[in-house]
Amino acid sequence: MKRRLLAAALATAFPLAVVTVMAPAYAAGKDWNQTFAQTEDGGHWVGNPEAPVQLREFVSYTCIHCAHFAQESDGPMRLEYIRDGKVRVEVRHLIRDPIDMTIALLTNCGDPNKFFGNHRAYFSRYDDYMDKVKAASADQIKGWNEAPLSQKFRLIASDLDLYSTMENRGVAKPALDKCLSDEAKMRTLAKQSTTGANKYGIKGTPSFVLNGELIDDAHSWDTLKPELDLKLGI
Fold it and tell me: Domains in the chain, start-ordered, CATH in brackets?
């Protein structure tokens, strides 16, 4: 019964929600990991705007393969691809369930330039918060499903100890509560998810779009890296 209730909670999802290839513009001595931008529809970029390879990552915070990808790719991506301007990376949310929406709202809370740090911080805690999801009681899951929208994501954040990650990054709880009840942002994230999934025909996470083309067989760092190297002629 508990498993069915958990499945029902995770199924209470918001609707799932062409990059031009630019000439190489490497900059000696410049660390492009410090260059950020936010798109009008809520995506987040890091890297050289004129990088020859433009990568879009479609990820879910409740996806274990996304967590593995984030953990395995973080170091080499930043050091070998983003830093010297070869690749620019955009993270796009694929919202699968209310927990996804909760963490997406939190990662987007505060200074947009801190998004990628927030993003890494939550994926580094994946096992911790998903263990709490699996251990959730029937009453907790019922509460997640039945709470008004203005309270739903604050309740999830409290039950799964999601506040502490952002508090440790300098964002106070009142500000986090405001973000977690921001219905306009919820709609933006849900639309981003639906639009991305429909545009590229994405069926699972993580999924990757390179220079406007979905890479069908890449769903991990081990399978994405050769595709990056091929685009770069390495």
Answer: 2-16+39-232 (3.40.30.10)
Question: Which residue, 73, 86, 69, is CA-closest to 31?
Answer: 86
Question: pTM of the full predicted structure?
Answer: 0.87
Query: In this structure, are residues 206 and 217 in contact, taking their beta carbons and an 8 Å threshold?
Result: no
Backbone angles phi, psi at 59, to 5 degrees: -135, 160
How buried is residue 130: exposed, middle or buried, by Cβ count under 10 Å (0-12/13-18/19+)?
A: middle
pLDDT at 17: 37
> What is the residue type of 14?
F
Burial of 182 (0-12, 13-18, 19+ CB in 10 A): middle
Tens digits of residue pLDDT in 83-105: 999 999 999 999 999 999 999 99
Enclosing H/E stretch for 226: helix 221-232
